[in-house]
């Protein structure tokens, strides 16, 4: 296509004459723009893949230029003129040129871009600029600005391509690095997991070794304790043997002294015999002299009557008055054996009284001794009567055994329990006989009450076990170790005698480790709570009485675990005392039988529930491994008392296992604990109290 390159000088409208109407119309048509309402909206049309669309339509003669292939949508702009106006020749020529060149270029280069076909539009724009030289500068500025903008965009596109390539390379590098990091992280995680599994296996093996070592340590401790107890017993026996030897030596010394006394008495008796021998000789001489006198009297009776005869001389002979005895006083006569026996009895009585005075009070040897004839006669063996007893069969048994009735009564000394673990009160460590205080039932109950009150006041002593605290309390009450052992043995023996009283029986059970000691403070708190509920009841009559049914409703509220039999027993006793109203002060007095019965029932219920739980856990436990799962223990408690909720079960198990409630609630079903430790905690430290009666239907 060729254009006329001659320069056309178009005059300005004000320079042209009015007769040149064609030039005026042409210039007006070329320069002026249509009105705002005559502007046609822009339209988009697509181009087929085989080439360009038709240039114009037959109806209106307006043609549109298809700029791109069919692979991308193309924008089409309508002419500025309206449908009624016609196009300028230059516009038609330019449009035809653009269509032709564009179609030809697209047919040769189907995959071209807008930048590849831009030269066609530049050539058409150059022709347009040449045709209108008066707009050359403005159009050149516009073209240059568009060219510079396109160049900048090209540069930016190049830079963006470079950046995109760099990003792609970086992305690939990063992807490779990420894959390497993932692989290394996977390897590290697998290594760490393997190390953790190995550490867990090592921990489990160490736990097993620790358990075995603890078991061996416990056995060694038990053996050491047994040896220590045997050593202590041997020491005590050695002390007792030494004391027995000392006593035996003292007894031997006393026997030697008695032997010396007997020897002295023997010497004295020999001296008496010697004196008696002399007396017998003198008496024989006296008797011979008397016989001689009798013979002389018989032969010279006649001469005796004469004054100054021989009879006067014989009568004047000196005869000792001591030996002037009759025939009845002759020691050789048979009747004088009684005199010797009486004399020997008097000597024995005097020696007995002297020995009694020496034992009772020193210096009584100078006291006046009673007459042996006034002393009570000593019964002979055949004169003794048999022991009188209440039943003949018991008397016969006592006679067969040779035991007197007085021997059955309590003596002044109590046999010590010693240090052997099998003894019940061995923790007192009493190895010597102790004085018997003969405590009454009231004294025993009072001491037990004081002990539990002191135990309840000592809040900081909750970590101390019952036996050490009992020894501390005994020492505080007695102010010395010896009297503390004496008081403790008397108190425990009194509790054994009065085991029917609940306080005495509970103290013995707590010291033996059969029930937890917390049952006593719990019982005391429940009694105080019952008294408070009665005092604050709205049904109170005159401040001291309550209706019968209201009172037992409060008892049921405070003691929900009471069985029907126990409640009937309480109601029967209360009904015997009062029929319609209950006197609170009398019924809930600490010394009343109702309170004693209430405590006895509470202790028995706790003991039975504890025994049922312990035996149930023992049945479900693993006897070989000496362990039980926490879940099975909770199921056993819940089966014994179905009314107990999960919170209470978790609290009891947490206290028994010495863990937190959260740990018990979140633990697995396979978690196990040591069986003996758990049962020991249930028996000695955890208060197991029912939430519902045992005979609940």
Automatic annotation (TrEMBL):
Any one Gene Ontology cellular component term annotated for this protein: cytoplasm
Matching entries from Pfam families are given as:
TSNAXIP1_N (PF15739)
Protein name from the UniProt record: Translin-associated factor X-interacting protein 1 N-terminal domain-containing protein
Going by the UniProt record, its keywords in alphabetical order are:
Coiled coil
Top-level division of the source organism's lineage: Eukaryota
The residues covered by the Translin-associated factor X-interacting protein 1 N-terminal domain are 95-202
Please give the residue ranges the record annotates as the region Disordered.
295-336
- Tell me which species this is from: Strigomonas culicis
